[in-house]
Amino acid sequence: xxxxxxxxxxxxxxxxxxxxxxxxxxxxxxxxxxxxxxxxxxxxxxxxxxxxxxxxxxxxxxxxxxxxxxxxxxxxxxxxxxxxxxxxxxxxxxxxxxxxxxxxxxxxxxxxxxxxxxxxxxxxxxxxxxxxxxxxxxxxxxxxxxxxxxxxxxxxxxxxxxxxxxxxxxxxxxxxxxxxxxxxxxxxxxxxxxxxxxxxxxxxxxxxxxxxxxxxxxxxxxxxxxxxxxxxxxxxxxxxxxxxxxxxxxxxxxxxxxxxxxxxxxxxxxxxxx
Length: 274
Prior knowledge:
Layout: H1 11-29, H2 35-45, H3 48-70, H4 76-99, H5 102-138, H6 149-153, H7 156-176, H8 179-189, H9 194-218, H10 224-233, H11 237-248, H12 253-273
């Protein structure tokens, strides 16, 4: 694989990757969209294609920690509806990786992330306006409300949206490990609260990321050199996950949503401008 080995990294480059690994752990137990910053940092130090192979085992380590933390809060009906569409997206992403160069990968994922963030902001504002209008009509104080994730997902429109986000999430997670923001935006738009959001996404990414390993090995993205670098960096994932677990209980729902969207935008812009 065309990448720098652990022994060829400078101190600053390793420190950058270590910080990105810390963010991986934090994103898995607190703000999922923060993972796009890790993606951008890895792509800044390593070749874009090679960076996805190094990042994947670290993501799986973070997924395991997230499942151990939030396993009781997963909503499995949502997961079962997403998996078939995600599988299709992973296949499409694999075919794309067989032909695309680093620039095409960065540009495609960055554009997708910004588009999905814009759509989510628009939908949240529309929901806020509808909630305020309903409150004014009823003569009661307005507080943003909406259908719960499980109720919305079971509707016909919810199933169509789940399939659309599922394919896009599968594609982005295979191409650049960037499925986190797509699934985060989907779960937010479905109305999931913090714990349901974190529990559902934890199981989702543990299963999806593990299933990607054979594809990544076949594409040459994971090899002995990348795993050696992972062995050094995984030590930073654990404290990041612990920090996220401590922080999530101190973040209210509105701030949580804003942080997820902001992290998605930052990651998308970084990929486009690099």
